[in-house]
Amino acid sequence: MTGPLSHLRVLDLSRVLAGPWSTQALADMGAEVIKIERPGAGDDTRGWGPPFLKDADGNETRESAYFLSANRGKKSVAVDLSREEGRRLVLEIAKRSDILVENYKLGGLKKYGLDYDSLKAVNPRLIYCSITGFGQTGPYAARAGYDFMIQGMGGLMSVTGEADGRPGGGPQKVGVALTDILTGLYATIGILGALAERERSGEGQHIDMALFDVQVAALANQSLNYLVSGTAPVRLGNAHPNIVPYQAFETADGHLILAVGNDGQFARFCEIAGRPELATDPLYVSNQARVANRDTLVPQIAEMLTKRTTADWIAALETAGVPCGPINTIAEVFQEPQALARGLATQMAHASGATAPGVASPLRFSRTPVNDKVAPPMLGQHTRQVLAEVLGLSETEIGAHEAEGTVAAG
């Protein structure tokens, strides 16, 4: 392993998406990530399909595309935590780990002796990250939290979707589990911060991550629009609350996203569109004026853009440095010359004999490249390896644990 975290070991007690997204990022950066799963079942998302990965003979495996998206580079160890010996094995791995990530319900690991206070006593350098719906404190702390409901509770759906009163208007979730993804990323940031602090103090700490907190934080300018003005933002479809023109428009053959970020770009757009006078009109000369008068400006821009094809507009506007782009399907994304040049679609040799597709990590290090081409593991694939190499158990001892049902090998 060559990444910047190749000297670290992570004990992954998380499942589904937010936690696994964080530990996948740590694995990409070279950390040894040991994922603890239930024998016979594993992470819930292994069964979240179709689609499922097909083996070399074209037969479906038990590996869902969902699971593959968030678990590359990890080692799977199947351990039964309901058994005392299973808990002891995981405790021993925790003693030898730098980081632990878990997303059990509030207090869920205390009964196993795997909560932060218990593990701090035996490994004071451990950085322990808990991910829950609402955090470790507050009146909602014991509630379960899922991405969709948090998008709603956390305000994202109030500003996502077509405007009320328009066709298709009403609240809309984002097309991916964005709150989970952002929580995983914030968790990784927190872990890296705790690692940096540990270099000075020599001590680990507990990181309390909540989906709800993350969603509110990620409202960014929309939350500040409310806190500054006292007026809650509303859904604007593809329009932007603070910038005009900054939305999708119909063209002669499809759609175009026009993302004008300053007055100079607006002037260049107007010149190319054959309406240079708009850029000097007092109603539209500044972004503040354009936001105030969007109701009269946007229809004029919409009418202009229908005169040419999407490709024609992109060619002309890119030459002039006016930000714009198409609305791609996901299939089209991976055919973009930029995606091909950056190698965003990857291939990984999977233990089933199949070739598993993947998406490259966006992290590009100059000296310590990421390890983003190690396929997600099959359930229990590394049970024997980890018990032998990390805990130093003999083949006889491992066999006895298997026979008792404490662990399962893939």
UniProtKB/TrEMBL annotation:
GO terms for molecular function: CoA-transferase activity. Coiled coil: none annotated. The keyword Transferase applies. The keyword Transferase applies. Keywords: Transferase. This is CoA transferase. SUPFAM superfamilies: CoA-transferase family III (CaiB/BaiF) (SSF89796).
